[in-house]
């Protein structure tokens, strides 16, 4: 799940990435904005959801995926869209277009 917060005085959006998976002990976020390097997400034990906040420039879209337990790739099932990648699967898309 993606939650976005836009700022009136900044050209960036704060995106909270939230992800849950029944087998997840560890989840990393990878995307264009991390140079496809894994960034560990923090587990909110009360909610059973892994979370990570990232500020991104507005009016752009970025590809990303989740890596579960170091070997299971998954997409955000409520992403803004999906696009084919070079590995025969799809990447999730987060869109930071400001909606008025």
TrEMBL record:
<dbReference type="Pfam" id="PF16561">
    <property type="entry name" value="AMPK1_CBM"/>
</dbReference>
<dbReference type="InterPro" id="IPR032640">
    <property type="entry name" value="AMPK1_CBM"/>
</dbReference>
<dbReference type="InterPro" id="IPR014756">
    <property type="entry name" value="Ig_E-set"/>
</dbReference>
<protein>
    <submittedName>
        <fullName>Carbohydrate binding module, family CBM48</fullName>
    </submittedName>
</protein>
<dbReference type="InterPro" id="IPR013783">
    <property type="entry name" value="Ig-like_fold"/>
</dbReference>
<feature type="domain" description="AMP-activated protein kinase glycogen-binding">
    <location>
        <begin position="15"/>
        <end position="97"/>
    </location>
</feature>
């Amino acid at each position: 799940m993606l939650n976005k917060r836009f700022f009136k005085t900044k050209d960036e959006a704060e995106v909270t990435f939230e992800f849950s998976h029944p087998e997840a002990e560890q989840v990393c976020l990878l995307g264009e904005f991390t140079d496809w390097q894994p960034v560990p997400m923090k587990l909110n034990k009360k909610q059973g959801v892994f979370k990570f906040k990232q500020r991104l420039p507005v009016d752009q879209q970025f590809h990303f995926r989740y890596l579960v337990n170091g070997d299971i790739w998954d997409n955000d099932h409520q992403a803004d869209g999906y696009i084919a990648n070079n590995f025969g699967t799809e990447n999730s898309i987060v869109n930071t277009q400001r909606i008025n």
